[in-house]
Design goal:
- The chain is an alpha/beta fold.
- It has one domain (about 35-310): Rossmann fold, CATH 3.40.50.
- About 50% of the residues lie in helices and about 15% in strands.
- It has 12 helices and 9 strands.
- Strands 3-2-1-4-6-7-8 form a 7-stranded parallel sheet, sandwiched between helices. Strands 5-9 form a two-stranded antiparallel ribbon.
- Helix 3 (about 55-70) packs parallel to helix 4 and helix 3 (about 55-70) crosses helix 10 (about 255-265).
């Protein structure tokens, strides 16, 4: 099992990063002032990457990518069996510690319960990856209030609560990071996925703003904004036959995770995986909504006129 000194830098970079990585780490810590008490509090613990929504899709791909780099990983979701299968595969493939935490992150005491479960494993949250999320597709007025409330609680409230809970300790240690998973859709309003797109706009805005606040503190804060990714997220929403799934090139979860890891290491605040998606992100930033809304609405409209929803633990 890979071990790390909590008072040292993150796991040793690969030779390809080498000197450049060391420069990046110095730039990331240019204002850092580690608190001895904060370092002492985790002196007997191993740093770990905590991944919510870590049993499937992008969440699992991210956990595997960080494990490949030598990090211990904690997979968090509600359903234990797929978590256990994912953790066992990570340990077998990468030789790092991988363990499971079956937890509903929307519960009010989720951050405290998470801390307790991590301490039981003799680890602490060095990097937090907020990937748990749900989506809703169809006309907003046709969605049940309960489904919308679930989406807001998971995509926004739980993410914010976990992020706010983890960040002060990371800043006190002058190391660590947070990687939030949003969507390219967070850069534009999304007719037929209105609440989902709005929730991801919140995640992007929050992440970029707090990332600026924490600059130079030793804490990386990034947000991943992928376009379509080939997971079960889109079929579960009933959008597999929407025009955007036919016209916009999809990435695999592994490709998205690779972009995310590289961008996180480089200290990028907004990470958009895929060359085409990068151009789309620029277009969505600069084109007025009066031009984009009809196009986005056409792309997102389900082929079948009924409301769909997805309520699985993993993002996208």
């Amino acid at each position: 099992m890979a071990q790390s000194d909590p008072q040292s830098s993150p796991p040793t970079p690969s030779p390809r990063l080498g000197f450049g990585r060391r420069l990046l780490d110095r730039w990331q810590t240019r204002y850092a002032r580690p608190e001895p008490g904060a370092l002492q509090a985790v002196a007997d613990l191993t740093p770990a990457v905590v991944v919510t929504g870590g049993s499937h899709g992008i969440g699992l791909a991210l956990a595997r990518r960080f494990a490949k780099a030598g990090h211990s990983v904690a997979l968090v979701a509600r359903n234990l069996e797929p978590l256990q299968q994912a953790a066992a595969a990570i340990e077998a493939d990468f030789g790092v510690k991988a363990f499971t935490i079956d937890l509903d992150v929307t519960e009010d005491d989720a951050p405290q319960v998470l801390d307790q479960r991590l301490t039981q494993q003799r680890v602490y949250a060095d990097i937090l990856i907020n990937c748990a999320g749900i989506g809703l597709s169809g006309q907003f007025a046709g969605q049940s209030p309960e489904r919308i409330e679930q989406l807001l609680n998971l995509n926004m409230t739980a993410l914010t609560r976990l992020m706010r809970h983890a960040l002060p300790a990371m800043r006190a240690r002058a190391r660590g990071g947070i990687l939030n998973v949003a969507s390219l859709g967070g850069l534009t309003p999304g007719p037929c996925q209105a609440a989902y797109y709005a929730s991801k706009a919140y995640v992007i805005s929050l992440s970029e703003a707090v990332g600026y606040e924490t600059r130079g503190s030793g804490v990386r804060l990034s947000v991943l904004a992928p376009g379509p990714v080939d997971t079960q997220f889109h079929p579960a929403m009933g959008t597999e036959h929407a025009f955007y799934r036919q016209l916009i090139l999809s990435l695999s979860a592994e490709e998205a995770a690779s972009y995310a890891y590289r961008g996180y290491v480089l200290g990028m605040r907004l990470i958009v995986p895929g060359i085409l998606n990068m151009f789309l992100a620029v277009a969505l930033r600069i084109l007025p909504h009066t031009l984009m809304l009809p196009l986005i609405g056409w792309l997102l409209k389900p082929r079948e006129e009924r409301n769909w929803s997805v309520t699985n633990d993993n993002e996208r």
